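Hypothesis: this fold can be encoded by more than one sequence.
Test: take the structure tokens below, design a sequence, compare later.
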């Protein structure tokens, strides 16, 4: 009986030692619990987006530090990669991510931007199309926090078009998605029937 007790203790000690010896996978920086289920993250450093969840996979795009991204799902403890939805679809290492911080002193999305600035931020999910029409060729889906650049015309006015009860805004694809898309696209910025006072675009902070 005494031998069995000693054997049991020896086994527990070995399991504990083995567990401590396992390398800890990189995880997302901890933050207050009310942010844990948010899909918004930001990159800590310049980092690549991979086609597959592996560093040996093809890199789709390099994201600069402090770029906001939208997760495809909330990663669990130990996940080394997570799929993202925007600003481009692919996989990113969780170690380079941090939670988006709320800055009460940050510029409001609806405040007046720098004159001549074409930078805008997607406020609600929208479909990007080739033509300003709900029947226009589908390009991609834009999710909240995606940064895009609109086309400006004379007087720094956003190039827009009214069609099918929507105000469409033209997006510069080459500037918004360098190396991925080219030409121009359109999003339905304002629904004149259901939500005439709302916009799908906010100014970049």
């Amino acid at each position: 009986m005494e031998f069995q007790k000693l054997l049991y203790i020896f086994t527990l000690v070995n399991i504990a030692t083995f567990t401590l010896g396992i390398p800890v996978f990189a995880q997302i920086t901890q933050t207050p619990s009310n942010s844990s289920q948010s899909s918004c993250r930001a990159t800590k450093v310049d980092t690549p987006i991979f086609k597959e969840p592996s560093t040996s996979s093809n890199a789709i795009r390099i994201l600069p530090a402090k770029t906001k991204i939208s997760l495809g799902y909330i990663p669990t403890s130990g996940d080394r990669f997570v799929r993202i939805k925007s600003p481009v679809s692919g996989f990113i290492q969780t170690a380079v991510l941090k939670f988006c911080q709320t800055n009460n002193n940050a510029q409001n999305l609806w405040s007046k931007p720098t004159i001549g600035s074409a930078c805008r931020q997607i406020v609600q999910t929208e479909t990007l199309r080739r033509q300003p029409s709900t029947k226009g060729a589908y390009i991609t889906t834009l999710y909240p926090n995606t940064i895009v650049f609109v086309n400006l015309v004379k007087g720094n006015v956003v190039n827009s078009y009214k069609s099918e009860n929507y105000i469409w805004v033209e997006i510069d694809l080459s500037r918004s998605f360098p190396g991925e898309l080219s030409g121009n696209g359109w999003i339905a910025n304002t629904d004149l029937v259901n939500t005439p006072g709302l916009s799908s675009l906010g100014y970049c902070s």
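Residues 190 and 198 are 6 Å apart (CA to CA). The chain has a mean pLDDT of 75.
Hypothesis status: open.
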